[in-house]
Every structure is written in structure tokens, then in C-alpha cells.
Amino acid sequence: MISEQQFGLLPRATVEPPGGGLERAVTESPELPWQDGPLPTSDDPVELLESRYEQIPHLMARTLARLRVDRRFQTTVALLRQRGWRDWHILTAAYNILLQRRLAAAGLNTAGAISSPAGARAATDLAYTPEADDEDEVPLGLFLNVEAMDRGRLMALLSMVRGLGLEVHGVPDLPAIEHFLAARFGYWNDDIEHPDPFVADTQSIGGSTT
Questions:
Q1: 159: Cα separation from own chain's centroid
Q2: For the range 121-125, what are the long-range contacts, defined as Cβ-Cβ under 8 Å and sequence gap of 24 or more?
Q3: What's the pLDDT tens digit per position in 57-96?
């Protein structure tokens, strides 16, 4: 046994917690196995998708009209579709990029601004208010970066979870949430026939729901 004084002289880097070098095997509980099948829900997936294809273009009609005639954005859309993105994913991503700019312009993009009930209500109201003609135009370059679009898509995952009546506790693990939504709610598979939202002369695009 060493004295308290001797212990105090030991380099802390050489002191490991008990069992620190042991490998720990993670096992699945038989009572709580992972489920891959779709979860039952009271929400009609077709109605949810119809709402997305109707509401999002309405909220961002001004910017979407500009994106429809931008060849660079058409290239981005084609690339995202090749990667398995549904059109409602692309719309969601673009809308969230636009919303962040609108929140910033209104001074509602900080934790302090939305920490009050009034600030939170103002941010929510803005999220459901269509673009106005007198708002500053958002640079279209913001929508051309695939990584930026992916961040915009991921922003919507928490609201989707809340919309399903579920809660996320602690720091959100977005990749895990995405995996859960994909496995249980058809996140990457569900779609419906809809007019192409990214061309001025729309044509119907097929889709399917799980």
C-alpha cells in the first residue's frame, strides 16, 4: 500500500480505472430485440406525403421558382436522386436552408432569441408563413452544395419524430434517428405520384409507399 503523499506524486496518465483494458461485448436483450418491420401509426403515409408536396412548395414558392430555372440546381437534384433521395427529401432540405436564412434575417436564429415563449412563437409562425415578395432573395448557391442539402434534410428528422408522437431525450443521434425512421417508417422508400416540383412545366413522377 502506498501513502497518500506517494499517490499524489503518481502521474495521473498512468492510473487507469478498474477493467479499463477489458473489451466489452455489447449484446442485445432478448426482451428488447431490434424490430425492422413498419410500426403501426394512426397517420396515413399518403396524406403526409401529399401534405409535404403541397405545403413546402407553397411556403418557398418564390425561391423554388428561381431554382427551377437554375441549371446548377438541376444538376444537384439529379445527383441527389441518383443517391436515393425522394423529391420530398430534396424539398425538405431546400426549405430548411431557406428557413435558416429567413430566421437569421428576422433575428430568430439564436438560442437567446427563441428561449422566450414570444420568440419561439415568432419562429414557429415564420416557419409556416410563405415567402413575401419584399424579402431579400436568398443566394441560390446555398442550395447547390450536396453536404449543405444533407444538413438541411437532417434538420427535419427531429420534427418528423415529434410528428409521429415520439420523443428524443438527451443529445440527438441523428444517424441513429435516420436509421430508425428508415427501418420503421419507410423514410427512404415512401413516396407518391406527384408533379415534378423542380421543373416549371411539371410532369407526373411515380412513387410508392411501404
A1: 8
A2: none
A3: 999 999 999 999 999 999 999 999 999 999 999 999 999 9
Nearby residues of 183 by Cβ (< 8 Å), 6 or more positions away:
35, 36
Quick check: 27 and 191 in contact, CB under 8 A? no
Instruction: Say how many domains are in the chain.
Output: 1
With respect to residue 59, please indicate whether it lies within any of the assigned structural domains.
Answer: yes
- Residue numbers of the domain that contains 152: 44-201
CA neighbor of 197 nearest in space, from 99, 59, 97, 45: 59
Residue 64 lies in a domain: yes
Burial class (CB in 10 A: 0-12, 13-18, 19+), 85: buried
Considering the domain boundaries, does residue 52 fall inside one?
Answer: yes
Q: What is the pTM of this model?
A: 0.78
Q: Is-contact 131 62, C-beta < 8 A?
A: yes
| Nearest-angstrom CA–CA distance, 85 and 83 | 6
Task: Please compute, for residue 111, the number of CA atoms within 13 A of its CA located in the half-sphere on the CB side.
Answer: 0
